[in-house]
Amino acid sequence: MRRRTVYTLLSAVLLILSTLLGCGGSSAPAPPVISVSPSTASLIAGAAQQFTASVTGTSSTAVTWSVSGCTGTSCGTIDNNGLYTAPSLIPSDTTVNVVATLQSDTTRSGSARVNQVAVQVRISESSVNANGGDSHQFTATVTGHTNTSVTWSLSTCSLGACGTLSSTGLYTAPSSVASAADVSVTVTSQADSSKYSSATVHLVPVAFSISPAGPLNVSVNATQNFTATVSGDSSNAGVVWSLDASCTPATCGTLSNVANTSVTYTAPATVPNPATVTLTATSVTDPSKSKNVAITITASIPGLQAGDYAFVFSGWKGLGGGNFGRQVTVGHFHADSSGNVTDGAKDVNDESGVSLSVSITGTYTVNSNRRGTLTLVSAQDTATYSMTLDTTGTKGNFIRLNSSGNPVSGSGYFEPQDSSAYSSAALAGSYALYLTAKPNDSVSMAAVGRFTASSSGSLSNGEMDMLAPTASYTQLTLGGTVDAPSSTTGRGTANLTLTPPPGAFSGSMQFVYYVISANKVILMQTDARGGTAPLLSGEAQRQIGSFSLATFDAPAIFELAGMHSFYQSVVVGQITPDGTGAMTGILDENFESNASLNQSFSGTYTVDSEGRSTMTLLNGSAVAYFFGPNQAYLMEQPNPGADILYGNVKPQSAGPFSPASLSTLRISEPEPVSPFAESDSGIITFDGVGSNSFEQDFTFFYSDGTYVQQSQTGSASYTLDTNGRGVISVNGLVLPFWLVSADEVTVIDTATNGVDYLPVVQHYLK
Q1: DSSP per residue over 628-644, as a string?
Q2: Which residues share a beta bridge with 700?
């Protein structure tokens, strides 16, 4: 009985355990899942999209459709079958949710996203230019609505200046545009008036320019062509040309070859009274627009011949407070036969920076004595110069005259250009090079050298000697490249490299040059003047022939000038070489206002096959580079740390000479070495016996920065020895000079009063 009870209890326990284990191994039913298709949709206003709901996990698949994430009419609508319809107006791009909710279990739902696309209006262009009477068709694109109709309108203009706009977007500008104005063209959606797009019409009035713009001179019976460049004239009607209403051919001249953009003016046979005639160009499209050119009729101008010229100017600009800035300019201009300068360009390097290819125009006058004025006009300034011409009317020298608030003292020269040399092939060959600079306004420096230029523009076989304020450099390697010159102006650029670099100065230097001929170019450094760029400028001359001691074998005149701590020194004299390496000579010098006159010297010289020479001169060693027999570029520093002197050697014509060897010459200043040195331009006439008369203009600065500009006339006595040395005596001042030839004299003065009125080198030229 007890054993049965035990078995019965054990069976009951096992049954309970079995039941419990069976319950622990089973899972509850999965919840229903609702998905909506498509999951995303983009709809414009009023568009519909059918959505469907897929239900799994339950046999009760009925759903209820709704929209969320929005309020009111912005939601759109959805029917019981899941057909969603976007609102009839969508103010802005928004997103709403389409929701399917299980009816048997409202906690279960699925959703899709609807991107509601607002109305957008786009116009074909954001801005256009229109001249008077122009038409332009605008087009509009409307998205975001089935209604793509638009309304066009104009705004931001007065009625007369608006033009018209058709219902299809065709804009027509006013027939005449008085002044520049902007008109707004707007296109607006008819489906949603808050949606629009605009474009700006820039109304462009008629405008034109006349070339040459004047004022200009035209000599009697001469012709001058004018052209009109017209903008804002869609019909290309051009201009009407006319002279003063009261004119007759005898008083004003005539117009011929009349076209709507050009005309030829012919001056009358005599100078009228008044001498100025007005040429008027009036727009055909807009008669309220006109341009006048003042033409002054002149008698035939003697002197400067019509043609192209290259020029160089160097000087000093007053900066106030006794401070000065270096200024160098090189350039090109065309002179006509009537006193006008056209088609000019200049490159300027000064304290304010570097300005390249600046356009210039201008005028000139020449009196019967070959003196006159040259005025060059640019966007930078109007510069007037006192000018003197040679007897051929093809070469001249000039000095800068004062301009109010912009005092500049300096000098320059111009020479005719040979356009046949405007190519790399024409310039190929070997050249001697001469460069000078004022690196810190109180000292001078110089460089002489040589190079060979190929027809492709590369430089080879180059060398350079340089005297800088703190060191000297001997036979540096000179290389680089030269770009081809312009076929119209002769302007080109070059990169010169020195190896090793000369101390603090950069070994790579940029230059601009202008061709005078196949044998000569002028050049200027275009690196901004500073610690590594001393603003070098000068010239290069083609080397002619071979070189040896015999290259230097006949009397020659040399000149040197330089500056140290604003004190200037000048030397001029005669060298008589023997062709084998020995030389004797006579010199006159004014060394920092200490004059030593008619001093004899002797020395030696070398000349290598490249034209480089060393000479014993002024108690030191000078370096020269020859470019022809008895002609060279020269530099020397007589005492370490003192003046650096530079200049040239020129062959002297055969003597003997006498006072009768001199006649009328022009007074020319090669360059003012310091701001306190005179710049002179004028005429001096020698009577062939012992007297002369002169008239000149001159400028300079006092040490306190005061600018001096004066005109001077006078007379003096002179002597001339058979060796070509002479002396001019004027107002107690002695001016030693040396005759290079009957066409050229080199002169120095012997002023000894310190910083102001510094000694200078002058040239008297034919």
Answers
A1: ETTEEEEEE-SSTTS-E
A2: 708
What CA–CA distance (Å, rounded) separates 543 from 635? 18
Phi-psi map region of 309: left, alpha, beta (phi>0 left; psi -120 to 50 alpha): beta
The per-type count for the chain, helices as H runs and strands as E runs, is: 4, 58
Residue 181, both tokens:
């104005």
Residue 309: strand pairing partners: 333, 416
User: What is the mean pLDDT of the segment spanning 564-585?
Assistant: 92
Q: Which of 651, 673, 705 is the last residue of a domain?
A: 651
Element at 6 (helix H, strand E): helix 2-24
CA 758 – CA 225 distance, rounded (Å) = 48
Residues whose CB falls within 8 Å of the CB of residue 601, separated by 6 or more in sequence, listed in order: 573, 584, 585, 586, 587, 617, 618
| Cα 345 to Cα 523: distance, rounded to the nearest angstrom | 14
CA angle 623, 629, 630 (to 5 degrees): 55
pLDDT of 7: 41
SS3 category, 102 = strand
Task: Report how far residue 402's alpha carbon sits from residue 385's, in angstroms, rounded to the nearest whole number.
Answer: 9
**Is residue 333 domain-shared with residue 411, that is, in the same domain?**
yes
Residue type, 356: L
The count of residues in the chain is 766
Which three-class secondary structure string do you get for 30-67?
Answer: CCCEEEEECCEEEEECCCEEECEEEEECCCCCCEEEEE
Instruction: Read off the pLDDT of residues 606-644 as tens digits, 9 standing for 90 and up.
Output: 999 999 999 999 888 999 999 999 999 999 988 776 789
In a domain, residue 364? The reply is yes
Q: Is residue 753 very low, low, confident or very high in pLDDT (cuts 50, 70, 90)?
A: low
Lookup result for tokens 């309970």: 16
- Both 285 and 330 in a single domain? no
Q: How far is CA 366 from the centre of its chain?
A: 31
What pLDDT was estimated at residue 160?
A: 61
The owner of tokens 């390697």 is 477
Residue of 415, 412, 393 lying closest to 519 (CA atoms): 415
Q: Do the domain assignments include residue 513? A: no
Under DSSP, the state recorded for 758 is B
566 and 755 Cβ atoms separated by less than 8 Å: yes
User: Which tokens go with 105?
Assistant: 């279990």
Model pLDDT, residue 158: 64
Whether the per-residue pLDDT at 16 is higher than 60: the answer is no
How far apart are the C-alpha atoms of 494 and 479, rounded to whole Å? 10
CA distance 347 to 351: 14
Read off the pLDDT band of 404 (50, 70, 90). Answer: low
Looking at per-residue pLDDT, the higher value among 703 and 57 belongs to 57
Domain end among 632, 651, 670: 651
Give the number of domains in the chain.
Answer: 5
Q: Could you give the 3-state DSSP secondary structure of residue 547?
A: coil
Rounded to an integer, what distance in angstroms lies between the CA atom of residue 115 and that of residue 69?
A: 12
Chain-centroid distance of CA 525 in Å reads 14
- The whole-angstrom separation of Cα 497 and Cα 506 is 9
- For a pLDDT cut of 70, what percent of the chain falls above it? 94
User: Mean per-residue pLDDT for 6-32?
Assistant: 53
User: What kind and span of H or E run contains 424?
Assistant: helix 424-427
Host domain of residue 563 = 545-651
Q: Tokens at residue 324, please?
A: 């000065």
User: Which single residue is written with the structure tokens 């709704």?
Assistant: 66
Considering only CA atoms, which of 605, 571, 614 is closest in space to residue 590? 571
Residue 234, CB-side half-sphere exposure with 13 Å CA sphere = 17
At residue 10, the pLDDT reads 44
Q: How far is the C-alpha of 646 from the C-alpha of 633, rounded, in Å?
A: 8
The neighbouring-strand residues paired with 130 are 203
Q: If DSSP codes are grouped into helix, strand and coil, which group holds residue 419?
A: helix
